[in-house]
Amino acid sequence: MGALMTVEEIVGSVESGMTLGIGGWGSRRKPMALVEALCASNVTDLTLVSYGGPDVGMLCAAGKVRRVVAPFVTLDSIPLEPHFRAARQNGTIEFTEYDEGMFMFGLYAAAHGLPFLPTPAGLGSDIVTYDPSLRTVRNPYGDEELLAVPPLKPDAALLHLNRADARGNGQYLGHDPYLDDLFAKAATNTYLSCERLVTAFDGPPQTLLVSRMHVTGVVEIPGGAGFTECLPDYPRDEARQKRYVEAAK
Amino acid sequence: MTVTRAEICVTACADAWRGDGEILAAAMGTCSILGARLARATFEPGLLTTDGGPLLTAAPVPIGAPAGEVEGWMPFRDHLWLVLNGRRHVMMGASQIDRYGNSNISAVGDWHRPTSQLLGMRGAPGNTRCNPTSYWIPRHAPRVFVEKVDVVSGLGWDRGAHEIRRVVTDLAVLDFDTPDRRMRLRSLHPGVSVAEVVERTGFELVIPEDVPETRRPTGPELRVLRDVLDPGGLRDREVRS
Protein backbone atom coordinates (compact mmCIF):
# COMPACT_ATOMS: atom_id res chain seq x y z
CA MET A 1 0.00 0.00 0.00
CA GLY A 2 1.41 3.36 -0.90
CA ALA A 3 0.34 6.46 -2.72
CA LEU A 4 3.71 8.19 -2.87
CA MET A 5 4.41 9.75 -6.24
CA THR A 6 6.92 12.23 -7.59
CA VAL A 7 5.94 15.64 -8.92
CA GLU A 8 6.89 14.39 -12.39
CA GLU A 9 4.60 11.38 -12.05
CA ILE A 10 1.71 13.53 -10.87
CA VAL A 11 2.09 16.09 -13.62
CA GLY A 12 2.66 13.27 -16.10
CA SER A 13 -0.79 11.88 -15.32
CA VAL A 14 -2.47 15.14 -16.32
CA GLU A 15 -3.35 15.01 -20.01
CA SER A 16 -4.18 17.72 -22.50
CA GLY A 17 -7.89 18.48 -22.69
CA MET A 18 -8.58 17.35 -19.14
CA THR A 19 -10.77 19.15 -16.63
CA LEU A 20 -8.55 20.00 -13.69
CA GLY A 21 -9.88 20.88 -10.22
CA ILE A 22 -7.56 22.96 -8.06
CA GLY A 23 -8.12 23.24 -4.29
CA GLY A 24 -7.57 26.17 -1.94
CA TRP A 25 -9.31 29.52 -2.30
CA GLY A 26 -8.02 32.72 -3.95
CA SER A 27 -4.46 33.13 -2.73
CA ARG A 28 -4.83 30.57 0.07
CA ARG A 29 -3.35 27.08 0.31
CA LYS A 30 -3.01 26.63 -3.44
CA PRO A 31 -0.92 23.69 -4.77
CA MET A 32 1.45 26.14 -6.44
CA ALA A 33 4.44 23.80 -6.75
CA LEU A 34 2.30 21.33 -8.71
CA VAL A 35 0.84 24.19 -10.74
CA GLU A 36 4.32 25.46 -11.60
CA ALA A 37 5.39 21.98 -12.68
CA LEU A 38 2.28 21.79 -14.86
CA CYS A 39 3.15 25.15 -16.41
CA ALA A 40 6.53 23.69 -17.41
CA SER A 41 4.96 20.57 -18.94
CA ASN A 42 3.66 20.23 -22.50
CA VAL A 43 0.02 19.82 -21.40
CA THR A 44 -2.47 22.14 -23.12
CA ASP A 45 -6.17 22.80 -23.50
CA LEU A 46 -7.11 22.42 -19.83
CA THR A 47 -10.44 23.33 -18.30
CA LEU A 48 -9.75 24.68 -14.81
CA VAL A 49 -12.30 24.37 -12.00
CA SER A 50 -11.13 26.59 -9.16
CA TYR A 51 -11.95 29.21 -6.55
CA GLY A 52 -9.35 31.02 -8.55
CA GLY A 53 -6.11 32.63 -7.51
CA PRO A 54 -2.56 32.64 -8.89
CA ASP A 55 -3.07 28.98 -9.90
CA VAL A 56 -5.47 30.11 -12.60
CA GLY A 57 -3.30 33.12 -13.47
CA MET A 58 -0.09 31.16 -13.91
CA LEU A 59 -1.69 28.47 -16.04
CA CYS A 60 -3.34 31.14 -18.21
CA ALA A 61 0.01 32.90 -18.62
CA ALA A 62 1.63 29.60 -19.59
CA GLY A 63 -0.96 29.05 -22.31
CA LYS A 64 -2.33 25.88 -20.76
CA VAL A 65 -5.95 26.91 -20.46
CA ARG A 66 -8.92 26.58 -22.79
CA ARG A 67 -11.64 27.36 -20.24
CA VAL A 68 -11.86 28.60 -16.67
CA VAL A 69 -14.85 27.67 -14.51
CA ALA A 70 -14.81 29.89 -11.42
CA PRO A 71 -16.79 32.30 -9.26
CA PHE A 72 -13.81 34.66 -9.04
CA VAL A 73 -10.08 34.91 -9.63
CA THR A 74 -8.30 36.98 -6.99
CA LEU A 75 -5.06 37.33 -5.04
CA ASP A 76 -7.04 38.46 -1.95
CA SER A 77 -4.70 41.19 -0.68
CA ILE A 78 -4.38 42.26 -4.33
CA PRO A 79 -7.94 42.02 -5.65
CA LEU A 80 -7.32 41.43 -9.35
CA GLU A 81 -5.25 38.60 -10.85
CA PRO A 82 -3.20 40.15 -13.69
CA HIS A 83 -2.70 37.09 -15.93
CA PHE A 84 -6.33 36.00 -15.73
CA ARG A 85 -7.40 39.56 -16.53
CA ALA A 86 -5.09 39.66 -19.52
CA ALA A 87 -6.37 36.31 -20.79
CA ARG A 88 -9.97 37.48 -20.50
CA GLN A 89 -9.30 40.87 -22.05
CA ASN A 90 -7.28 39.36 -24.90
CA GLY A 91 -9.96 36.75 -25.48
CA THR A 92 -7.53 33.82 -25.21
CA ILE A 93 -9.69 31.78 -22.80
CA GLU A 94 -13.32 30.82 -22.42
CA PHE A 95 -15.01 31.50 -19.10
CA THR A 96 -17.87 29.86 -17.23
CA GLU A 97 -18.71 32.19 -14.38
CA TYR A 98 -20.56 30.88 -11.33
CA ASP A 99 -21.72 32.26 -8.01
CA GLU A 100 -19.57 31.00 -5.09
CA GLY A 101 -22.43 28.98 -3.63
CA MET A 102 -23.45 27.57 -7.02
CA PHE A 103 -19.86 26.47 -7.54
CA MET A 104 -19.89 24.65 -4.18
CA PHE A 105 -23.13 22.91 -5.15
CA GLY A 106 -21.49 21.80 -8.41
CA LEU A 107 -18.73 20.17 -6.36
CA TYR A 108 -21.24 18.64 -3.92
CA ALA A 109 -23.21 17.19 -6.82
CA ALA A 110 -20.11 15.69 -8.43
CA ALA A 111 -18.81 14.40 -5.08
CA HIS A 112 -22.04 12.49 -4.48
CA GLY A 113 -23.05 11.34 -7.92
CA LEU A 114 -26.04 13.67 -8.16
CA PRO A 115 -27.16 14.97 -11.58
CA PHE A 116 -27.67 18.45 -10.12
CA LEU A 117 -28.39 20.34 -6.92
CA PRO A 118 -31.11 22.99 -6.75
CA THR A 119 -30.40 26.49 -5.47
CA PRO A 120 -31.84 29.96 -5.83
CA ALA A 121 -28.29 31.41 -6.00
CA GLY A 122 -27.55 32.59 -9.52
CA LEU A 123 -31.12 33.10 -10.69
CA GLY A 124 -31.82 36.59 -12.00
CA SER A 125 -28.13 37.33 -12.52
CA ASP A 126 -26.14 37.35 -15.77
CA ILE A 127 -24.74 33.92 -14.91
CA VAL A 128 -27.74 32.42 -16.67
CA THR A 129 -27.41 34.92 -19.52
CA TYR A 130 -23.86 33.87 -20.35
CA ASP A 131 -24.22 30.14 -19.70
CA PRO A 132 -27.24 29.06 -21.74
CA SER A 133 -26.52 25.40 -20.86
CA LEU A 134 -27.88 26.04 -17.34
CA ARG A 135 -31.37 24.72 -16.64
CA THR A 136 -33.92 25.34 -13.91
CA VAL A 137 -36.11 22.88 -12.01
CA ARG A 138 -39.53 23.42 -10.50
CA ASN A 139 -39.95 22.52 -6.83
CA PRO A 140 -42.16 19.39 -6.92
CA TYR A 141 -43.58 20.27 -3.48
CA GLY A 142 -44.25 23.90 -4.22
CA ASP A 143 -44.09 26.20 -7.14
CA GLU A 144 -40.83 28.06 -7.24
CA GLU A 145 -38.19 27.72 -9.91
CA LEU A 146 -34.66 26.85 -8.82
CA LEU A 147 -31.37 26.69 -10.66
CA ALA A 148 -30.23 23.10 -11.31
CA VAL A 149 -26.48 23.30 -10.83
CA PRO A 150 -24.77 20.56 -12.85
CA PRO A 151 -21.92 18.54 -11.36
CA LEU A 152 -18.42 20.00 -11.59
CA LYS A 153 -16.51 16.81 -12.17
CA PRO A 154 -12.74 17.14 -12.63
CA ASP A 155 -10.72 14.41 -14.30
CA ALA A 156 -7.97 15.26 -11.84
CA ALA A 157 -7.73 17.45 -8.75
CA LEU A 158 -4.61 19.04 -7.28
CA LEU A 159 -4.59 19.91 -3.57
CA HIS A 160 -2.05 21.16 -1.06
CA LEU A 161 -2.44 20.30 2.61
CA ASN A 162 -0.39 20.84 5.74
CA ARG A 163 0.26 17.18 6.52
CA ALA A 164 -0.28 13.87 4.83
CA ASP A 165 0.75 10.27 5.26
CA ALA A 166 2.19 7.97 2.63
CA ARG A 167 -1.20 6.30 2.18
CA GLY A 168 -2.70 9.59 0.97
CA ASN A 169 -4.63 10.79 4.01
CA GLY A 170 -4.45 14.57 4.23
CA GLN A 171 -4.73 16.96 7.18
CA TYR A 172 -5.36 20.70 7.29
CA LEU A 173 -4.14 22.64 10.31
CA GLY A 174 -5.42 26.12 9.48
CA HIS A 175 -8.85 27.50 10.31
CA ASP A 176 -10.49 26.84 6.96
CA PRO A 177 -10.65 23.55 5.02
CA TYR A 178 -11.89 25.44 1.92
CA LEU A 179 -13.55 22.87 -0.35
CA ASP A 180 -10.59 20.51 -0.69
CA ASP A 181 -12.42 17.40 0.51
CA LEU A 182 -15.14 18.02 -2.07
CA PHE A 183 -12.58 18.40 -4.85
CA ALA A 184 -11.06 15.08 -3.74
CA LYS A 185 -14.42 13.32 -3.80
CA ALA A 186 -15.55 14.95 -7.04
CA ALA A 187 -12.45 14.19 -9.11
CA THR A 188 -11.67 10.93 -10.86
CA ASN A 189 -8.09 11.16 -9.56
CA THR A 190 -6.83 13.40 -6.78
CA TYR A 191 -3.20 14.32 -6.18
CA LEU A 192 -2.02 15.79 -2.94
CA SER A 193 1.07 17.78 -2.09
CA CYS A 194 1.83 18.42 1.57
CA GLU A 195 4.16 20.50 3.68
CA ARG A 196 5.28 17.45 5.58
CA LEU A 197 4.77 13.71 5.30
CA VAL A 198 4.08 12.15 8.68
CA THR A 199 3.81 8.59 9.92
CA ALA A 200 1.18 9.53 12.52
CA PHE A 201 -1.12 12.54 12.72
CA ASP A 202 -1.17 15.08 15.56
CA GLY A 203 -4.28 17.10 16.28
CA PRO A 204 -8.00 16.41 16.46
CA PRO A 205 -9.45 13.83 14.03
CA GLN A 206 -11.72 16.46 12.47
CA THR A 207 -8.61 18.02 10.92
CA LEU A 208 -8.22 14.86 8.79
CA LEU A 209 -9.86 16.44 5.80
CA VAL A 210 -9.05 14.15 2.90
CA SER A 211 -9.24 10.37 3.04
CA ARG A 212 -6.87 8.06 1.16
CA MET A 213 -9.92 6.45 -0.44
CA HIS A 214 -10.17 9.58 -2.61
CA VAL A 215 -6.44 10.10 -3.22
CA THR A 216 -4.36 8.62 -6.02
CA GLY A 217 -1.01 10.14 -5.22
CA VAL A 218 0.78 12.18 -2.56
CA VAL A 219 4.08 14.05 -2.54
CA GLU A 220 5.93 16.03 0.11
CA ILE A 221 6.78 19.58 -1.03
CA PRO A 222 7.74 21.93 1.79
CA GLY A 223 6.65 25.43 0.76
CA GLY A 224 4.42 23.81 -1.86
CA ALA A 225 1.76 26.51 -1.56
CA GLY A 226 4.26 28.99 -3.04
CA PHE A 227 3.49 32.56 -2.05
CA THR A 228 -0.12 31.74 -1.13
CA GLU A 229 -0.94 31.40 2.55
CA CYS A 230 -0.66 27.99 4.18
CA LEU A 231 -1.54 28.56 7.81
CA PRO A 232 -0.27 27.74 10.37
CA ASP A 233 2.89 26.71 8.48
CA TYR A 234 3.35 30.11 6.85
CA PRO A 235 1.37 33.25 5.94
CA ARG A 236 1.03 34.59 2.42
CA ASP A 237 4.35 35.97 1.16
CA GLU A 238 3.01 39.41 0.29
CA ALA A 239 6.34 40.64 -1.08
CA ARG A 240 6.62 37.69 -3.47
CA GLN A 241 2.99 38.06 -4.50
CA LYS A 242 3.59 41.73 -5.22
CA ARG A 243 6.62 40.89 -7.36
CA TYR A 244 4.48 38.34 -9.23
CA VAL A 245 1.94 41.06 -10.04
CA GLU A 246 4.60 43.57 -11.04
CA ALA A 247 6.32 41.04 -13.28
CA ALA A 248 3.03 40.56 -15.11
CA LYS A 249 2.90 44.20 -16.22
CA MET B 1 -15.15 67.46 18.69
CA THR B 2 -14.61 67.49 14.91
CA VAL B 3 -16.02 64.47 13.18
CA THR B 4 -14.31 63.33 9.98
CA ARG B 5 -16.07 62.28 6.78
CA ALA B 6 -14.82 58.72 7.29
CA GLU B 7 -16.42 58.64 10.73
CA ILE B 8 -19.73 59.79 9.27
CA CYS B 9 -19.42 56.99 6.71
CA VAL B 10 -18.68 54.34 9.33
CA THR B 11 -21.69 55.41 11.38
CA ALA B 12 -23.90 55.42 8.28
CA CYS B 13 -22.70 51.90 7.46
CA ALA B 14 -23.41 50.83 11.05
CA ASP B 15 -26.96 52.18 10.77
CA ALA B 16 -27.64 49.81 7.86
CA TRP B 17 -27.63 46.91 10.37
CA ARG B 18 -29.89 48.71 12.89
CA GLY B 19 -32.72 46.44 13.96
CA ASP B 20 -31.19 43.30 12.42
CA GLY B 21 -30.80 41.49 15.75
CA GLU B 22 -29.01 38.15 15.90
CA ILE B 23 -27.67 37.70 12.38
CA LEU B 24 -24.25 37.74 10.74
CA ALA B 25 -23.15 41.21 9.68
CA ALA B 26 -20.92 40.42 6.70
CA ALA B 27 -18.87 43.33 5.39
CA MET B 28 -16.27 44.16 2.74
CA GLY B 29 -14.25 47.38 2.81
CA THR B 30 -12.76 49.22 5.78
CA CYS B 31 -15.64 51.56 6.66
CA SER B 32 -18.17 48.78 6.15
CA ILE B 33 -16.26 46.34 8.40
CA LEU B 34 -15.89 49.07 11.01
CA GLY B 35 -19.58 49.88 10.68
CA ALA B 36 -20.60 46.28 11.43
CA ARG B 37 -18.35 46.14 14.46
CA LEU B 38 -19.44 49.58 15.66
CA ALA B 39 -23.11 48.61 15.41
CA ARG B 40 -22.42 45.49 17.45
CA ALA B 41 -20.35 47.39 20.02
CA THR B 42 -23.09 49.95 20.56
CA PHE B 43 -26.75 49.79 19.50
CA GLU B 44 -27.02 46.29 17.93
CA PRO B 45 -25.26 43.93 20.37
CA GLY B 46 -26.90 40.79 19.02
CA LEU B 47 -25.03 40.96 15.69
CA LEU B 48 -22.36 38.39 14.86
CA THR B 49 -19.10 39.63 13.38
CA THR B 50 -15.92 37.92 12.19
CA ASP B 51 -12.19 38.48 12.42
CA GLY B 52 -12.20 39.05 8.66
CA GLY B 53 -11.54 35.32 8.31
CA PRO B 54 -13.36 32.18 9.43
CA LEU B 55 -13.74 33.03 13.13
CA LEU B 56 -16.82 34.50 14.78
CA THR B 57 -15.33 36.68 17.46
CA ALA B 58 -16.74 36.75 21.01
CA ALA B 59 -16.62 40.55 20.88
CA PRO B 60 -16.10 43.02 18.01
CA VAL B 61 -12.33 43.24 17.53
CA PRO B 62 -10.19 46.09 16.18
CA ILE B 63 -9.73 46.01 12.42
CA GLY B 64 -6.79 43.78 11.47
CA ALA B 65 -6.43 42.45 15.02
CA PRO B 66 -6.36 38.74 15.89
CA ALA B 67 -9.71 37.23 16.79
CA GLY B 68 -8.99 36.76 20.49
CA GLU B 69 -11.78 34.81 22.14
CA VAL B 70 -14.09 33.22 19.57
CA GLU B 71 -17.75 32.23 19.76
CA GLY B 72 -17.98 30.26 16.55
CA TRP B 73 -16.49 28.98 13.33
CA MET B 74 -17.53 30.16 9.89
CA PRO B 75 -15.29 28.70 7.18
CA PHE B 76 -16.15 29.66 3.61
CA ARG B 77 -18.32 26.59 3.06
CA ASP B 78 -20.52 27.46 6.05
CA HIS B 79 -20.66 31.06 4.94
CA LEU B 80 -22.09 29.85 1.63
CA TRP B 81 -24.69 27.72 3.41
CA LEU B 82 -25.58 30.65 5.65
CA VAL B 83 -26.44 32.64 2.53
CA LEU B 84 -29.21 30.11 1.90
CA ASN B 85 -30.16 30.00 5.59
CA GLY B 86 -30.77 33.72 5.45
CA ARG B 87 -29.55 34.95 8.85
CA ARG B 88 -27.15 37.36 7.23
CA HIS B 89 -27.08 40.95 5.99
CA VAL B 90 -24.15 41.65 3.73
CA MET B 91 -22.64 44.99 2.76
CA MET B 92 -20.74 44.57 -0.50
CA GLY B 93 -18.75 46.83 -2.77
CA ALA B 94 -19.66 47.49 -6.40
CA SER B 95 -17.79 48.73 -9.44
CA GLN B 96 -21.11 49.71 -11.02
CA ILE B 97 -24.61 50.08 -9.57
CA ASP B 98 -27.85 51.19 -11.21
CA ARG B 99 -31.02 52.87 -9.98
CA TYR B 100 -32.66 49.60 -8.88
CA GLY B 101 -29.54 48.37 -7.11
CA ASN B 102 -28.27 45.96 -9.78
CA SER B 103 -24.52 45.76 -9.23
CA ASN B 104 -21.46 44.67 -11.17
CA ILE B 105 -18.20 43.32 -9.75
CA SER B 106 -17.60 40.99 -12.66
CA ALA B 107 -16.38 42.80 -15.76
CA VAL B 108 -16.61 46.15 -17.53
CA GLY B 109 -17.53 46.18 -21.20
CA ASP B 110 -18.86 43.22 -23.18
CA TRP B 111 -18.73 40.18 -20.87
CA HIS B 112 -17.51 37.97 -23.72
CA ARG B 113 -14.40 40.08 -24.18
CA PRO B 114 -14.30 42.64 -21.38
CA THR B 115 -12.32 45.85 -21.54
CA SER B 116 -11.66 45.34 -17.85
CA GLN B 117 -11.99 41.98 -16.14
CA LEU B 118 -12.83 42.51 -12.46
CA LEU B 119 -13.21 40.01 -9.59
CA GLY B 120 -15.94 37.83 -11.04
CA MET B 121 -19.43 37.21 -9.68
CA ARG B 122 -18.13 36.11 -6.27
CA GLY B 123 -21.14 35.58 -3.97
CA ALA B 124 -23.11 38.53 -5.29
CA PRO B 125 -25.85 36.56 -7.11
CA GLY B 126 -26.65 34.39 -4.09
CA ASN B 127 -26.27 37.20 -1.57
CA THR B 128 -28.72 39.45 -3.33
CA ARG B 129 -31.22 36.68 -4.07
CA CYS B 130 -31.27 35.32 -0.50
CA ASN B 131 -30.12 37.98 1.98
CA PRO B 132 -30.68 41.64 2.75
CA THR B 133 -27.87 43.42 0.93
CA SER B 134 -26.41 46.89 1.29
CA TYR B 135 -23.52 48.55 -0.51
CA TRP B 136 -20.55 50.61 0.58
CA ILE B 137 -19.09 52.77 -2.19
CA PRO B 138 -16.03 54.70 -0.95
CA ARG B 139 -15.99 57.01 -3.98
CA HIS B 140 -19.32 58.23 -5.31
CA ALA B 141 -18.78 58.77 -9.05
CA PRO B 142 -20.76 58.72 -12.31
CA ARG B 143 -18.74 55.74 -13.56
CA VAL B 144 -20.03 53.77 -10.56
CA PHE B 145 -23.61 55.03 -10.50
CA VAL B 146 -24.58 54.13 -14.06
CA GLU B 147 -27.78 53.91 -16.11
CA LYS B 148 -27.13 50.26 -16.87
CA VAL B 149 -24.53 47.94 -15.37
CA ASP B 150 -22.46 46.04 -17.93
CA VAL B 151 -22.87 42.72 -16.09
CA VAL B 152 -25.49 41.92 -13.44
CA SER B 153 -23.59 40.24 -10.61
CA GLY B 154 -25.87 41.41 -7.79
CA LEU B 155 -29.62 41.54 -8.43
CA GLY B 156 -31.53 44.78 -8.09
CA TRP B 157 -35.12 45.23 -6.95
CA ASP B 158 -36.30 44.78 -10.56
CA ARG B 159 -34.54 41.40 -10.97
CA GLY B 160 -35.78 39.51 -7.94
CA ALA B 161 -33.54 40.80 -5.16
CA HIS B 162 -34.47 39.71 -1.64
CA GLU B 163 -33.91 43.26 -0.31
CA ILE B 164 -31.48 45.99 -1.30
CA ARG B 165 -31.54 48.10 1.80
CA ARG B 166 -29.00 50.88 1.71
CA VAL B 167 -26.19 52.34 -0.35
CA VAL B 168 -23.66 54.30 1.68
CA THR B 169 -21.09 56.44 -0.13
CA ASP B 170 -18.52 59.07 0.79
CA LEU B 171 -21.16 61.70 0.00
CA ALA B 172 -24.52 60.40 1.07
CA VAL B 173 -26.83 57.61 2.13
CA LEU B 174 -29.21 56.26 -0.50
CA ASP B 175 -32.09 53.81 -0.22
CA PHE B 176 -34.97 52.43 -2.30
CA ASP B 177 -37.87 53.69 -0.21
CA THR B 178 -39.90 54.71 -3.26
CA PRO B 179 -43.06 53.21 -4.80
CA ASP B 180 -41.17 51.76 -7.77
CA ARG B 181 -37.98 50.94 -5.82
CA ARG B 182 -35.84 53.48 -7.58
CA MET B 183 -32.79 54.74 -5.71
CA ARG B 184 -33.51 57.71 -3.49
CA LEU B 185 -31.30 60.20 -1.73
CA ARG B 186 -31.88 59.46 1.94
CA SER B 187 -29.41 61.81 3.60
CA LEU B 188 -26.44 64.00 2.77
CA HIS B 189 -23.24 63.84 4.77
CA PRO B 190 -22.47 67.14 6.52
CA GLY B 191 -21.00 69.60 4.03
CA VAL B 192 -22.30 67.82 0.92
CA SER B 193 -24.89 69.44 -1.37
CA VAL B 194 -27.68 67.84 -3.40
CA ALA B 195 -26.04 69.29 -6.52
CA GLU B 196 -22.78 67.53 -5.78
CA VAL B 197 -24.52 64.16 -5.43
CA VAL B 198 -26.54 64.72 -8.61
CA GLU B 199 -23.38 65.67 -10.47
CA ARG B 200 -21.62 62.52 -9.37
CA THR B 201 -24.54 60.17 -10.12
CA GLY B 202 -24.92 58.86 -13.67
CA PHE B 203 -28.70 58.41 -13.48
CA GLU B 204 -31.66 60.35 -12.16
CA LEU B 205 -32.04 59.91 -8.42
CA VAL B 206 -35.29 60.34 -6.56
CA ILE B 207 -34.70 63.43 -4.45
CA PRO B 208 -37.22 64.29 -1.73
CA GLU B 209 -38.05 67.93 -1.07
CA ASP B 210 -36.23 67.92 2.21
CA VAL B 211 -33.09 65.82 2.43
CA PRO B 212 -31.85 65.47 5.99
CA GLU B 213 -28.23 65.49 7.02
CA THR B 214 -26.63 62.11 7.78
CA ARG B 215 -26.39 61.83 11.55
CA ARG B 216 -23.11 62.34 13.33
CA PRO B 217 -21.76 59.61 15.58
CA THR B 218 -22.59 59.95 19.27
CA GLY B 219 -19.83 60.52 21.81
CA PRO B 220 -19.73 56.87 22.90
CA GLU B 221 -19.75 55.68 19.26
CA LEU B 222 -16.86 57.96 18.43
CA ARG B 223 -14.88 56.74 21.43
CA VAL B 224 -15.38 53.08 20.50
CA LEU B 225 -14.44 53.76 16.89
CA ARG B 226 -11.38 55.87 17.63
CA ASP B 227 -10.01 54.17 20.73
CA VAL B 228 -10.99 50.53 20.23
CA LEU B 229 -11.99 49.52 16.71
CA ASP B 230 -9.68 51.65 14.55
CA PRO B 231 -6.97 53.34 16.65
CA GLY B 232 -4.66 53.37 13.60
CA GLY B 233 -7.12 55.45 11.55
CA LEU B 234 -7.43 53.03 8.62
CA ARG B 235 -10.85 54.60 7.93
CA ASP B 236 -9.15 57.83 6.86
CA ARG B 237 -7.17 55.99 4.20
CA GLU B 238 -10.39 54.82 2.58
CA VAL B 239 -12.24 58.15 2.85
CA ARG B 240 -10.30 61.38 3.21
CA SER B 241 -11.87 64.40 4.84
What do these coordinates show?
The complex is a heterodimer of chains A (249) and B (241). Chain A has 249 residues and is α/β, with parallel strands linked by helices. Helices cover 25% and strands 23% of the residues of chain A. In chain A, the strands form two sheets. In chain A, strands 1, 2, 3, 4, 8, 9, 10, 11 and 12 form a nine-stranded mixed sheet that branches. In chain A, strands 5-7-6 form a three-stranded antiparallel sheet. In chain A, strand 6 (135-138) and strand 7 form a beta hairpin. The termini of chain A are far apart. The model of chain A has no long low-confidence stretch (mean pLDDT 97). Chain B is an alpha/beta fold. Chain B is built from seven helices and twelve strands. Chain B has helices at residues 5-16, 30-41, 76-85, 124-130, 194-199, 219-229, 235-238, and strands spanning 24-27, 55-57, 70-73, 88-92, 96-97, 103-104, 107-108, 116-117, 132-137, 163-169, 172-175, 184-188. In chain B, the strands form four sheets. Chain B has a six-stranded mixed sheet with strand order 1-4-9-10-11-12, sandwiched between helices. Chain B has a two-stranded antiparallel ribbon with strand order 2-3. In chain B, strands 5-6 form a two-stranded antiparallel sheet. In chain B, helix 2 packs across helix 6 (219-229).
